[in-house]
Amino acid sequence: MKYYKYWEHCVSKIEDNKITEAIDYARKKALELNVPIELVNKIFSVNLDSFEKKINSNMSECIERGKNENAKALCLYYSLDNGWDSTIYIDKEYSKINNHWIGTSGSFVEIGKARGFSGIYKKDAEAAFFADDISTGICILLMLRTTIAFYNVTINYKDCGFKLCITCTDGDFVTVVG
Predict the structure, then answer these.
(1) Is the full-model pTM beyond 0.85?
(2) Rounded-to-integer distance, Cα 168 and Cα 118, Å
(3) Residue-wise pLDDT tens digits, 46-84
């Protein structure tokens, strides 16, 4: 899928800890894909502090469970179609090449929903995932902001002994701490 290449470019920047470059690229690409500047600004103005607090308040439990279960990774999954409902999976396996490890352990911690993005995804992207120019630009921005919120929390846990990842699909993930 040609549109997904834009997200993959953002992922490579994030995984190289080049967050500012990822943001600049995503903004530029969204505008090139005809996302109105007002909508770009609206996406960047959504306050994700409460989402970050939900993640942070559960990290100690996730890390403790991970140690008890001999896990290799903790992966936050968020559902675009269900109001950003989020769960951290404690995974016994990890592979950068094969994503089938996500959710393999069966152990997880519910995080809750992130307010603010669901309406934008449903209304402005028409709940279309990388289907056309505008939905692609919107998805890139929403996924980037969600990933950065997770990144903002996990940088405080970089020495926890686990890979810390995030995804909203069954097909890929972003390793923010590895």
Answers:
(1) yes
(2) 13
(3) 999 999 999 999 999 999 999 999 999 999 999 999 999
